[in-house]
């Protein structure tokens, strides 16, 4: 092999070596791209799956909370509840009670368009009178507040009972644990103000009705128009009520509370324009500058004494009282009507 041939062979080998190396690099690069695309696809699938599960959980949380009265006979529930408490069913049948206590039905429209259905009881045929607005709890309607209405009427007060959203005559389907319900209270307060001069306007709620009263109390409207707030057996937040139910459900072990609350909160914010934080009565009570009475049922397993004490401590105004009664949830007036009446009236007369 001469020198010229040797050079050509060497050149050819170098070219082949370069091509081989280039091919290997291309294969490695292609392999990396494939791995990158595969990993990216897996990551995307995982993210989509997480978002899908989160959306599903969020929907379930929101629907379970907002539509919990769906299919319930809230009118019948009130009648059954009063019967269980041994009240006279005939006396507290709504039409009879309205007829015997000068009750007149009315409607008002809240600022978000919700129509509120209520009854205005006029004591001693005097419209220009101290007036209390009574707010019932979950699962019932205005009728379950009639025994307390009778107490106020006997004390010379005018009384308004009304159906909260998704209850009684209400056409609204949402239960928002006081967030949107507070607009109904605002509308009723305005209605009463148009009928009276310098008389008192008091809001008195039980259970979720107490939460509605408390969230209303935290508004500027309440500080300017309400004279007193009474919260009987209020629970501290929508979140705590949800978690109490969640922990009793099957197949929820292993799902962190923070995650399920985040899912529900995200869904509520996106679709219903409010959040768990908006219904936190303890936190919102820091804005409550209205004279307030908290009634704590000491044997309450729903709205526990600890919850009521936390609410009381958080209330901003110094003009507040905490009254304890040895009763179960919202049964203070049922078990101790005289003591309950005295506690309420003494508070209002101060």
From TrEMBL:
Region of interest: Disordered: 1-25
GO MF entry, a single one: hydrolase activity
All residue ranges annotated as the AB hydrolase-1 domain in the record: 130-253
Keywords from the UniProt entry: Hydrolase, Membrane, Transmembrane, Transmembrane helix
Biased composition (Basic and acidic residues): 1-15
Membrane spanning stretches: 34-57
Pfam families assigned: Abhydrolase_1
Segments of skewed composition (Basic residues): 16-25
PANTHER family (alphabetical): ALPHA/BETA-HYDROLASE, ALPHA_BETA HYDROLASE FOLD-1 DOMAIN-CONTAINING PROTEIN
Protein name according to UniProt: Alpha/beta hydrolase family protein
Protein's organism: Anaerosporobacter mobilis DSM 15930
């Amino acid at each position: 092999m001469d020198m010229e041939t040797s050079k050509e062979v060497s050149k050819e080998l170098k070219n082949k070596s370069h091509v081989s190396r280039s091919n290997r690099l291309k294969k490695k690069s292609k392999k990396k791209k494939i791995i990158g695309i595969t990993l990216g696809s897996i990551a995307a699938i995982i993210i989509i799956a997480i978002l899908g599960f989160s959306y599903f959980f969020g929907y379930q949380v929101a629907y379970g909370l907002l539509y919990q009265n769906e299919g319930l006979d809230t009118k019948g529930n009130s009648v059954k509840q009063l019967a269980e408490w041994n009240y006279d069913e005939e006396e507290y049948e709504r039409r009879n009670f309205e007829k015997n206590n000068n009750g007149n039905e009315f409607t008002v429209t809240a600022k978000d368009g919700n129509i509120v259905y209520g009854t205005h009881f006029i004591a001693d045929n005097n419209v220009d009178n101290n007036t209390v607005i009574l707010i019932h709890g979950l699962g019932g309607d205005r009728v379950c507040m009639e025994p307390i209405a009778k107490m106020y009427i006997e004390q010379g007060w005018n009384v308004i009972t009304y159906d909260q959203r998704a209850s009684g005559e209400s056409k609204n389907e949402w239960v928002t644990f006081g967030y949107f319900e507070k607009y109904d209270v605002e509308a009723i307060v305005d209605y009463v103000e148009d009928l009276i001069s310098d008389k008192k306007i008091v809001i008195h709620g039980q259970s979720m009705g107490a939460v509605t009263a408390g969230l209303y109390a935290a508004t500027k409207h309440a500080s300017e128009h309400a004279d007193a707030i009474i919260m009987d057996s209020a629970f501290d937040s929508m979140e705590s009520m949800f978690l109490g139910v969640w922990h009793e459900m099957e197949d929820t072990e292993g799902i962190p509370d923070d995650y399920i609350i985040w899912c529900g909160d995200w869904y509520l914010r996106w679709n219903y324009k409010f959040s768990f934080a908006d219904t936190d009565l303890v936190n919102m009570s820091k804005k409550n500058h209205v004279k307030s009475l908290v009634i704590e049922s000491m044997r309450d397993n729903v709205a526990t004494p600890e919850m009521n004490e936390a609410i009381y401590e958080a209330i901003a105004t110094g003009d507040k009282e905490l009254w304890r009664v040895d009763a179960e949830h919202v049964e203070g007036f049922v078990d101790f009507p005289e003591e309950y009446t005295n506690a309420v009236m003494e508070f209002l007369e101060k």
